[in-house]
Write a structure and sequence with these properties.
The complex is a heterodimer of chains A (120) and B (387).
Chain A (H helix, E strand, L loop, with lengths): L1 E3 L4 E6 L2 E6 L1 H7 L2 E5 L6 E2 L4 E7 L3 E5 L4 E6 L1 H5 L2 H5 L8 E5 L11 H8 L1
Antiparallel strand pairs in A: 1-2, 2-3, 3-9, 4-6, 5-8, 6-7, 8-9
Chain B lengths: L1 E2 L17 H6 L3 E5 L2 E6 L4 H10 L1 E5 L4 E7 L4 H9 L14 E7 L5 E9 L4 E5 L4 H12 L3 E5 L3 E7 L3 H8 L11 E6 L2 E6 L8 E7 L3 H10 L3 E3 L2 H10 L41 H10 L3 E8 L10 E3 L7 E11 L4 E9 L8 E6 L2 E8 L11
Parallel strand pairs in B: 4-14
Antiparallel strand pairs in B: 2-3, 4-10, 5-8, 5-9, 6-7, 7-8, 10-13, 11-12, 12-13, 15-18, 15-20, 16-17, 16-19, 17-18, 19-20
Helix pairs in contact in B: 2-7
The chains are: A alpha+beta (120), B alpha+beta (387).
Cofactor (chain A): (R)-lipoate
InterPro entries (chain A): 2-oxoA_DH_lipoyl-BS, Biotin_lipoyl, GCV_H, GCV_H/Fam206, GCV_H_sub, Single_hybrid_motif
Function (chain A): The glycine cleavage system catalyzes the degradation of glycine. The H protein shuttles the methylamine group of glycine from the P protein to the T protein.
Chain lengths: 120, 387
């Protein structure tokens, strides 16, 4: 199941674990990224908490945790090479995997069609 | 995800346009409000590529939002205008030869900085370029300060573009004038395709380059001709900021303002010997007592370069500490970001004088962490001015 937030994160949900990243639209708006800071595995976040930071030459932006949950894995590849977020934001450049506190809460997020309408 | 810098939903209808506004839009620029103007922050290539292109070839910047002011002596003698301006700036204007340009500062009675500017001697008048956000105040300040001896006129009928980078000279020579004989800070009035322009060999990137003042009716034409050259790319405010930061140059309003003095700001080089204690025309500018005292005794704090150790940018506003626990505050970052040519974070800011020595290890607070940084001589990149 693929879901989106109004803050331009995507979630690929398998069971009770969501793989989270930022959308192609967001990556385009940010421009070339030069730095990514990810949370520690094991950290817990509430929906809306700042879970990661991405920086372009000119600005820092927060990436919010899209749902309540615990970080179970992070993607070191985008820390080593932030430009991956620009080249493959909805594939190889995922940010973290989140064990959802309440998987049913994902139903309230946007589906792909609704997100596309939002950024159109 | 949210970008903290974005002026969300700001009413932009009141913004002024430079003569090149439509050209920016046609080039696909992303526009932002800046100093009351609708300005390009970046073009489709993006800040990173624009920055690197400027250092590798040539970048073209619209800086028409800046104020261009003519100070013409009523007596007809340039010396009278120079001496009048010296009452407002701690700069040797009298010693500025015809066709030469010099960096300057307007100071206030407390020794703070009202604005920074470029001063040019064009023979029978002085030509000033001042910051956009300050230009109306500067104009009033000039009229009040030297209106009795000089006619002060804001040029609203000229655009200003900067062509910066190692290919700038070749591009200008190929397309138009013979600028190869000009040195850094030389200024010439020249016809570019029958358009009467003022060309200075200076800029705000640390690179060799030129600033070209163009009559407004020819601004689009001249700019388009420059952009047609394969070495030239349009550059927005985003890369302008990262370029000047790597070059160690101050941004007025960030790194210098009415609360900072020239000595605190490490701008002693902008105050020539003739205006310092013991000089021919020592003092005689606003705030001279404090500024000359700081020359003699040092200032309590100093603007320094700060090189973060890791990859994380340390941005303006970050607090600086002497220790990794954030107990002993010693200063603040005033500008910081990622330097594409340095390929790492760079910053500048003010620290207590006893922490200002090159090599001093300090810590900046970023998102609750204390990141190590080192006081470092600026510029962060080698200047390539043609002296």
């Amino acid at each position: 199941m693929l879901k989106f937030t109004e803050e331009h994160e995507w979630l690929k949900i398998e069971g009770d674990v969501a793989t989270v990243g930022i959308t192609e639209h967001a990556a385009g708006q940010l421009g070339d990224l030069v730095f990514v800071e990810l949370p520690e595995a094991g950290a817990s976040f509430a929906k809306g908490d700042s879970a990661a930071t991405v920086e372009s030459v000119k600005a820092a932006s927060d990436v919010y945790c899209p749902l309540d949950g615990e970080i179970v894995e992070v993607n070191q590849a985008i820390v080593d090479d932030p430009s991956l977020v620009n080249s493959d934001p909805q594939g190889a450049a995922w940010f973290f995997k989140l064990k959802l506190a309440d998987p049913s809460a994902a139903n309230a997020l946007l589906d792909e069609a609704a997100y596309k309408e939002l950024v159109a | 995800m949210r970008q903290t810098w974005r002026p969300d939903l700001e009413d932009i209808s009141h913004l002024k346009h430079t003569p090149l506004n439509a050209l920016h839009l046609s080039l696909g620029a992303r526009m932002v409000p800046f100093a009351g103007y609708d300005m390009p922050v970046q073009y489709p290539e993006g800040v990173l590529k624009e920055h690197l292109h400027t250092r590798a070839a040539a970048g073209l910047f619209d800086v028409s939002h800046m104020g261009q002011i003519v100070v013409r002596p009523k007596s007809g003698r340039i010396e009278d205008a120079a001496l009048a301006l010296e009452k407002l700036v701690p700069v040797d204007v009298l010693g500025l030869a015809e066709g030469r340009q010099r960096y300057g500062l307007f100071t206030n009675d407390e020794g703070g900085i009202l604005d920074d500017l470029m001063i040019t001697n064009l023979g029978d008048h002085l030509f000033l370029v001042v910051n956009a956000a300050c230009k109306d105040a500067d104009f009033e300040h000039l009229k009040k300060g030297l209106g009795d001896t000089c006619d002060v006129k804001m040029l609203d009928d000229r655009a200003l573009v900067a062509l910066q980078g190692p290919r700038a000279e070749a591009v200008l020579c190929e397309l138009w004038a013979d600028v190869a004989s000009m040195r850094f800070m030389d200024v010439a009035e020249a016809d570019l395709h029958d358009v009467s322009c003022i060309i200075s060999r200076s800029g705000y990137t640390g690179e060799d380059g030129f600033e070209i003042s163009i009559p407004v009716q020819s601004a689009v034409d001249v700019t388009q001709r420059l952009l047609e050259h394969p070495d030239v790319m349009p550059i927005g405010l985003g890369a302008r900021d990262s370029l000047r930061l790597e070059a160690g140059l101050c941004l007025y309003g960030n790194d210098i303002d009415t609360g900072t003095t020239p000595v605190e700001a490490a701008l002693e080089w902008a105050i020539q010997k003739s205006r310092r204690s013991g000089g021919d025309r020592s003092g005689g500018f606003p705030g001279a007592e404090r500024i000359l005292s700081e020359f003699a005794n040092g200032a309590k704090r100093r603007r320094v370069g700060l090189k973060p150790e890791g990859r994380a940018p340390v941005r303006g506003g970050a607090k600086v500490f002497a220790d990794a626990e954030g107990k002993m505050a010693v200063g603040t970052v005033t500008s910081g970001g990622f330097g594409p040519s340095v390929d790492g974070p760079v910053a500048m800011g003010y620290v207590d004088a006893d922490q200002a020595g090159n090599g001093t290890k300090l810590y900046a607070e970023v998102r609750g962490k204390y990141l190590p940084l080192t006081v470092t001589a600026m510029p962060f990149v080698k200047q390539t001015y043609k002296r």
